[in-house]
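Researcher: Structure prediction, please.
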Amino acid sequence: MTRRERLMASLKGEPVDRPPVSFYEIDGLRQDETRDDPFNIYTDPSWKPALELARERSDRIVMTGVGFGGAPPDPVAELTNVETRDEGRCRLTRRTIRAGQRELTVETKLDPDVDTFWTTTHMLKDADDLRAWIDLPERTFGGEPNVERVFDVEKRLGDSGIAMIDTGDPLCAVAELFSMGDFTIIAMTERDLFREALDKAARMIQPRVEAVARALPGRLWRIYGPEYATPPYLPPELFAEYVTRYDTPMVEAIQRHGGFARIHSHGRLRDVMDHIAATGCTGLDPVEPPPQGDVSLRWVRENYGRQMTLFGNLEASDLENLSADEFERKVARAVEEGTAGEGRGFVLMPSACPTGRKLSERALGNYERMIEFVEKL
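Model: Predicted structure follows.
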């Protein structure tokens, strides 16, 4: 089978020659080691072998967003001021929005040696800030999805993999405006207000999902954000209220057009798995093993595997810290549990990837062990 055929068969629950193996964010396409940018960690020579391994031997799943052409202007833009400055080797950005009588400010920091950014000041701090955000004018939906970006990814991939459309859900859109502590307090104590905010986010997100699913049928999607409502952050009944209620229409739109909706949720799953399944999704990642998670891959496979293709369940920390032999035992267990009995499909995958400028020899060796193990099957 080609790598693309193997992935599509796994999504459809069809037989495969071996389980696909994905490096998650590392696909060798989005990482450009030739781009001269002080914040591009992949220019470091230590990354070159891993990127070549991803291109040549992994079953590549390339995450991509979809922009819109001809969309109406964002009415919040004229209320927004953005300032960016370099401080030492870091880049700091401050974004301020005038919201009635309040000023909402978010500050972020970008480090040249880490492929991520930190929010150092969150936009919303309390319920009054959330009310002000809800009262901001909403953008009218319109425009057409820019499908060329996805077509370009697929053309560059050829038979080596597939594109995956990436979107946050309403919970993610609202929760990330707060620090984690403030979010959990507001979500627990201001439920009517929080649902009002989720309704606003859904009015912005759902029409976009509908339009993209219609324009790009049959693709894999990743929906991220549900983990904000998993224990111990929120009780399971709020997962149903804040995730299932809003993600189900997203899943239905994607799958009505032949797509595959994959829910992304780190951490504890046992008490919310029925709520995840209730969305109708046909994929789940990363199914983290204990102690990061609270269920085995085997348990999820036995109870929900007929509905969902499972992606996982290797910890990124194990990828970076375990010896090759120790890591291979984790790989063997994941493959055994992920393919046991009847199920829709399984893709071997870590829960995340290293983000530092220098990739260790140990992490590179463990990427190689993932490939070598499945190629022997």
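Model: The longest strand covers residues 90-99.
Researcher: Thanks, that helps.
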